[in-house]
Write a structure and sequence with these properties.
There is one protein chain. The protein is built from 24 helices and 11 strands. The radius of gyration is 26 Å and the shape is globular.
Length: 516
């Protein structure tokens, strides 16, 4: 084992000998783990990941660029091989009718939304044998789209096709946490009771749920959709890609340029409900020919490192070096919660209230992954430092896609300070808080951070039951005009990027949680 102040590279697990059809070592190999049996009677194994064994990077998520500016020639034929033993989508009459309806609507309206909706469904339901030709046809359709009024201009001339492939080891490692959590809370299975094991096997053969502890709360790891949709939403409210969810992993069609993702008027009946949305327009940026492909490349590499931490059982060892499956499960749930809620922030451009509530949840969730509290994440100087670091580690072309929203978030955090209207009236630079203990002075930066924390706490209702914060809470409400910039919720996206570029911080934080 490593020194006590380091994250270990191996851990001890209790894996019954009946697991994986009586071949627990086979399970470990399939999950990309190295295992050594320590005690047959208790089923104690010492395990480590393959990458820790060879002292190299993980190979859990990879990207394949099939077409686009980076490729001399398209390689759609590779899709059939990448798909593996595909989970085929049955072309039921309902699916076929849906395809026909979307095709007719796209032809009638000539609206890109309808056409892209058709493309996504076609790529999602195509059989394994059809997928290469379907992807090629969609790509050709994108590249051939012309600017209305000027047929010489191809709108998506730099369109690309990318497969973000998930290794089977990733799913199995995540699944192992669920299996071992069930075993830990089932005395009969843990003791290798013959009757309990027999019942479990019968249930498995009948399609029952046996090892499913909390698994529906992190099932996005199976298809990677929440982890990749955040990438797709990086320029929200603009869009720059389409995505089909496949068993091999997301199949992305990058457009080569961003498009406005919203309409000024209501796009559907539900939009007629009166909720406050964004009040200021967002400029759709121009990007270089390879920016989309570079963003996909960078994101995949960072996801690979992130999942290498998140699915390493050794990270969730306690002080004795034993694996703690409940801590591992909690980390998997927390990570997926972070990605899904940032996606919801990106997708809720029309609902300012929902975006803000999601931001407060994201700021709390982040503390479990990086060990920093809401006060730190709400401080302008820290946000600026984080953005500066991202600019140094994200390649320039990829940054054209990945950083505009993060930059908007930092500007919005700075703008929160402008809401302290009484300070402007007084010509003051600090907020004075008087209580029984005396007078406390807050800079605008600190006051803005405290104001965001106040709004987070107000998700339970305004006011405070903490005597030490009554004066501060009341003063903040009095001094600030309540204007919240539209882009403030994008702080969640800024700090999600920071999570991806700091796998070592995530590793140490999760280990500190797991070793208690």
């Amino acid at each position: 084992m490593a020194r006590s102040d380091d994250v270990p590279t191996s851990t001890v697990v209790h894996l019954p000998l009946w697991a994986w059809g009586g071949d627990p070592l086979g399970l470990m190999r399939a999950a990309g783990l190295q295992g050594r049996l320590l005690d047959r009677k208790s089923g104690r194994w010492q395990i480590k990941t393959d990458e820790a064994y060879r002292n190299g990077p993980p190979s859990l998520v990879t990207v394949h660029h099939l077409a686009g500016p980076r490729q001399a020639r398209p390689q759609f034929g590779r899709l059939a091989g990448l798909a593996g033993p595909a989970l085929e989508v049955s072309r039921t009459p309902d699916v076929q009718r849906a395809l026909e309806r979307r095709a007719k609507r796209a032809e009638r309206t000539r609206d890109p939304v309808d056409l892209f909706s058709l493309f996504q469904l076609q790529a999602t339901v195509a059989s394994r044998s059809e997928l290469p030709s379907t992807a090629e046809e969609i790509h050709a359709g994108l590249v051939d789209m012309r600017l209305e009024g000027d047929g010489s201009v191809r709108v998506f001339a730099n369109a690309g096709v990318h497969v973000i492939q998930r290794a089977e080891e990733l799913s199995l490692r995540a699944r192992l946490a669920s299996v071992l959590l069930r075993v830990e809370y089932d005395d009969q299975l843990r003791s290798d009771d013959a009757r309990a094991v027999g019942h479990a096997r019968q249930a498995l053969r009948a399609g029952g749920l046996i090892f499913s502890s909390s698994e529906k709360l992190y099932d996005g790891i199976k298809f990677l959709d929440p982890y990749v949709v955040v990438l797709r939403g990086s320029l929200s409210p603009a869009v720059w890609s389409l995505m089909a969810t496949r068993d091999l992993g997301p199949l992305m069609f990058s457009l080569g340029r961003p498009l406005a993702g919203t309409k000024g008027d209501a796009a559907e009946m539900l939009h007629l409900m009166s909720v406050p949305g964004a009040t200021e327009p967002v400029r759709t940026p121009e990007v270089s020919a390879t920016a989309c492909s570079e963003a996909v490349e960078w994101w995949t590499a960072q996801l690979n490192e992130f999942f290498g931490v998140l699915t390493d059982p050794a990270v969730f060892s306690d002080r004795t070096g034993a694996y703690v499956p409940v801590k591992h499960t909690q980390a998997l749930l927390t990570a997926e919660q972070l990605f899904r809620r940032v996606v919801s922030i990106q997708a809720s451009h029309r609902d300012a209230n929902a975006r803000r509530v999601l931001l407060y949840s994201v700021l709390d969730t982040l503390s479990r992954l990086v060990g920093r509290d809401i006060d730190t994440h709400s401080t302008l100087s820290f946000a600026e430092k984080t953005l500066g670091h991202l600019r140094t580690v994200i390649p320039p072309a990829a940054a054209e896609i990945l950083l505009p929203a993060a930059e908007r978030a930092v500007k919005a955090l700075k703008d929160v300070q402008n809401g302290f209207y009484m300070l402007r009236h007084f010509g003051a630079d600090e907020l004075e808080i008087a209580d029984t203990a005396g007078v406390t002075r807050l800079t605008k930066e600190k006051a803005a951070a405290e104001y965001i924390k106040l709004l987070r706490n107000a998700t339970h209702g305004h006011g405070t039951n903490r005597s030490g914060r009554v004066a501060l809470t009341n003063a903040l409400l009095a001094h600030h005009d309540g204007s919240i910039p539209d882009d403030l919720p994008l702080l969640g996206y800024l700090y999600l990027l920071d999570v991806l570029v700091r796998p070592d911080v995530v590793r140490r934080t999760l280990y500190a949680s797991g070793r208690r």
